[in-house]
């Protein structure tokens, strides 16, 4: 399909630079079936679900993966996006033309790395020097890797270290937050449990590739970046049991959805999974595991807008986004949310 079919105009004032406070006070656009749209709040979510439904969260934790350094006199920026070894990370570099294989980059606070070969995704492998765990080095020298559409408008600050982390974050490894889950609070989770809605966590380490634009003119020519995910046997059993009992599996975020669909067979059964996935979901895709999705509002011509268009239909999603823009919904990572249910 042509990528420009997934374009839309978004006024800059609709882009959120800070999250709602409290988190569950964010707005929620609920879209069910072929035409219904309701303007609600995230804290209304329990009343929009059924007892026996299961919300599926991503428990990845964002690491401070944005680094600023120097190679000689050249200023170099690095965004880590995938771990490849104990001390090795693939990274996208800013001013990459000034870095050659074997160069040492100094990131400050005593943190240095040696540049390796360029990889197939267009990045460079960095090998961090020293004996301290890389996680400690990143805590010392790194900052939270806010999306470019936020970072270009204001500097990252200490508040982002908590704002850009979900309440479910446990497994270190993401360089972007599973932002749909940023809206959840302990109070909302209590209300969800009281409504008889089930919950399950999975792990998909979100990579920086989620921020990259689709440069191809046709979706067939776009190549997704690999991300590593895991669903253990106990989680797979719970997910399958909930669906077998008549509950709907509702992914909280496109990362949870992509992992569920990667782990599901043609029969719709979710199997244990521990591997990389490059799944690219566009209109025409037949969903195997997921019955609905809670997600924030995505960029024009992005793979994530293509994904929601596959779930709800492209024209339907264009109408939903037109409504959201007209009603002043806040877009992107720190913005408002939507609940997308293809069938009532």
TrEMBL record:
<dbReference type="InterPro" id="IPR042119">
    <property type="entry name" value="QueA_dom2"/>
</dbReference>
<keyword id="KW-0808">Transferase</keyword>
<keyword id="KW-0328">Glycosyltransferase</keyword>
<dbReference type="InterPro" id="IPR003699">
    <property type="entry name" value="QueA"/>
</dbReference>
<keyword id="KW-0963">Cytoplasm</keyword>
<keyword id="KW-0671">Queuosine biosynthesis</keyword>
<dbReference type="Pfam" id="PF02547">
    <property type="entry name" value="Queuosine_synth"/>
</dbReference>
<protein>
    <recommendedName>
        <fullName>S-adenosylmethionine:tRNA ribosyltransferase-isomerase</fullName>
        <ecNumber>2.4.99.17</ecNumber>
    </recommendedName>
</protein>
<dbReference type="GO" id="GO:0051075">
    <property type="term" value="F:S-adenosylmethionine:tRNA ribosyltransferase-isomerase activity"/>
</dbReference>
<comment type="subunit">
    <text>Monomer.</text>
</comment>
<comment type="pathway">
    <text>tRNA modification; tRNA-queuosine biosynthesis.</text>
</comment>
<comment type="similarity">
    <text>Belongs to the QueA family.</text>
</comment>
<dbReference type="InterPro" id="IPR042118">
    <property type="entry name" value="QueA_dom1"/>
</dbReference>
<dbReference type="InterPro" id="IPR036100">
    <property type="entry name" value="QueA_sf"/>
</dbReference>
<keyword id="KW-0949">S-adenosyl-L-methionine</keyword>
<comment type="function">
    <text>Transfers and isomerizes the ribose moiety from AdoMet to the 7-aminomethyl group of 7-deazaguanine (preQ1-tRNA) to give epoxyqueuosine (oQ-tRNA).</text>
</comment>
């Amino acid at each position: 399909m042509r990528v420009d079919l997934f374009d839309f105009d978004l006024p800059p004032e609709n882009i959120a630079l800070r999250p709602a406070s409290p988190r569950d006070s964010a707005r929620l656009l609920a879209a069910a079936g072929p035409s219904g749209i309701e303007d609600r709040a995230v804290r209304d979510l329990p009343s929009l679900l059924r007892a026996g439904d299961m919300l599926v969260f991503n428990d990845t934790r964002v690491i401070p993966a944005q680094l600023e350094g120097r190679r000689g006199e050249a200023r170099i920026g690095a965004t880590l996006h995938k771990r490849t070894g104990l001390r090795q990370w693939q990274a996208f570099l800013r001013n990459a033309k000034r870095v050659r294989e074997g160069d040492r980059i100094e990131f400050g606070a005593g943190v240095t790395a040696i540049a390796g070969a360029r990889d197939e995704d267009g990045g460079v492998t960095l090998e961090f020097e020293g004996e301290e765990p890389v996680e400690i080095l990143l805590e010392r020298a790194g900052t939270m890797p806010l999306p470019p559409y936020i970072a270009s408008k204001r500097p990252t600050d200490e508040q982002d270290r908590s704002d850009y982390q979900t309440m479910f974050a446990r497994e270190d490894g993401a360089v972007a937050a599973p932002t749909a889950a940023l809206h959840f609070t302990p109070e909302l989770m209590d209300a969800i449990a009281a409504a008889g809605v089930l919950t399950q966590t999975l792990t998909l380490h979100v990579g920086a590739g989620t921020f990259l634009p689709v440069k191809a003119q046709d979706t067939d020519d776009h190549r997704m970046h690999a991300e590593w995910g895991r669903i253990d046997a106990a989680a797979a059993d719970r997910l399958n049991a909930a669906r077998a009992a008549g509950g709907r599996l509702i992914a909280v975020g496109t990362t949870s959805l992509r992992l569920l669909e990667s782990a599901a067979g043609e029969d719709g059964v979710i199997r244990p999974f521990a591997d990389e996935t490059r799944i690219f979901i566009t209109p025409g895709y037949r969903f195997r595991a997921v019955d609905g999705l809670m997600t924030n509002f995505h960029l024009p011509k992005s793979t994530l807008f293509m994904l929601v268009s596959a779930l709800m239909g492209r024209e339907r999603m264009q109408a939903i986004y037109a409504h959201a823009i007209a009603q002043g919904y806040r877009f992107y990572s720190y913005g408002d949310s939507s609940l997308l249910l293809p069938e009532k």
